[in-house]
């Protein structure tokens, strides 16, 4: 599982009920823009604002739209271990892989408890790849991931790798090198995408791959041509894209709202995230035009 992997939004109607009917269009949109995978029910997908039943509905809908051109990884993490195990069992026959972050309310006191948690969850879907979702800024589980690999690999047969959403590039590099690079370490920090390339990154999970897939593919192309000045310039545009939407009341909700501008209306956000007005979306687009970001936006039916 490599390439750009979009962390997808939970599509909703105006009343914030799920709009599963748009997922086929959403999947085609991602494929048309060079995205290789969908990471569903994650932080971008507002999993904490969804019921278990709703998460299962999203799993089924995306599972029906996976293909050789677009794989699907389902985040099944939960503060309740039994719920996480139930979601893992449900995902096992519907998607290409599963992932879980650490429990984030009663936080884990040591890395051995993290391995124990992951082992129980992964065992519920033994025939598909399992990823640990490392996002310590939200979970508080700030352990070295190379230590996790050393402990977990012998205990979790289907451990495929890590969704590494942290800016600790030293730990990231050690994970990439672990056991002759046997683990699939998916980089998850969009704003420093370029920094992952010298370390051999070949898979990335992020929310802005919904919006800016052509930009990130251009960064890879520039880097491979040793045009590091252009690669850095393009990365700066990615950073400004995040900054612009963040000033509109918060990135998560603003970025979801901006999908409408790209031709995929995934609807409003649930509390506490904002939903932008048409005027705010237009204002954001004008700012992006001024910074030269617009030519790199993903498009519906790109030529």
Task: Describe the structure in your own words.
With 303 residues, this protein is an alpha/beta fold. The chain has a single domain, classed as Alpha-Beta Barrel (TIM Barrel). Helices cover 42% and strands 12% of the residues. The chain has 12 helices and 8 strands. An 8-stranded parallel β-sheet has the order 7-6-5-4-3-2-1-8. β6, α7 and β7 form a beta-alpha-beta unit. α3 packs parallel to α4.
Structural class: alpha/beta
The CATH class: Alpha Beta
What's the CATH architecture? Alpha-Beta Barrel
CA-based shape? globular
> Which regions are unreliable across 5 or more consecutive residues at pLDDT < 50?
none
Supply the CATH superfamily name.
Aldolase class I
List the domain count as a whole number. Answer: 1
* H/E element order: EHEHEHEHEHHEHEHEHHHH
Q: End-to-end span in angstroms?
A: 26 Å
**Multimer state:** single chain
Give the strand order of the largest sheet, numbering strands 1, 2, ... along the chain: 7-6-5-4-3-2-1-8
| Rg, nearest Å | 18 Å
Number of strands: 8
Counted by DSSP, the helix tally is 12
How much of the sequence lies in strands comes to: 5-15%
Main sheet specs: 8 strands, parallel
The helix content, as a percent range, equals 40-55%
């Amino acid at each position: 599982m490599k390439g750009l992997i979009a962390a997808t939004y939970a599509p909703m109607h105006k009343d914030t009920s799920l709009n599963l009917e748009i997922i086929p269009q959403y999947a085609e949109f991602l494929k048309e823009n060079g995205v290789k995978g969908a990471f569903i029910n994650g932080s971008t997908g507002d999993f904490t604002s969804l019921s278990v039943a709703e998460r299962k509905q999203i799993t089924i809908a995306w599972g029906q739209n996976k293909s050789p051109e677009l794989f699907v990884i389902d985040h099944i993490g939960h503060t309740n271990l039994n719920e996480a195990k139930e979601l893992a069992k449900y995902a096992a026959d519907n998607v290409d892989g599963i992932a879980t972050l650490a429990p984030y309310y009663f936080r884990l006191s040591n890395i051995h408890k993290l391995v124990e948690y992951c082992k129980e969850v992964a065992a519920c879907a033994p025939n598909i790849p399992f990823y640990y979702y490392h996002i310590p800024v939200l979970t508080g589980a700030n352990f070295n991931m190379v230590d996790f690999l050393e402990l977990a690999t012998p205990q979790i047969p289907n451990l495929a790798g890590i969704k590494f959403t942290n800016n600790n590039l030293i730990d990231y590099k050690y994970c990439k090198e672990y056991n002759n690079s046997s683990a699939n370490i998916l980089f998850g920090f969009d704003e420093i995408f370029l920094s992952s390339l010298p370390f051999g990154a070949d898979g990335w999970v992020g929310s802005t791959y919904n919006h800016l897939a052509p930009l990130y593919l251009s960064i890879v192309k520039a880097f491979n041509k040793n045009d590091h000045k252009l690669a850095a310039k393009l990365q700066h545009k990615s950073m400004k894209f995040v900054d612009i939407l963040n000033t509109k009341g918060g990135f998560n909700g603003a970025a979801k709202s901006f999908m409408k501008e790209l031709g995929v209306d995934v609807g409003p956000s649930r509390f506490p995230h904002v939903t932008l007005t048409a005027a705010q979306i237009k204002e954001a687009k004008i700012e992006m035009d001024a910074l030269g970001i617009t030519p790199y936006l993903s498009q519906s039916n790109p030529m």
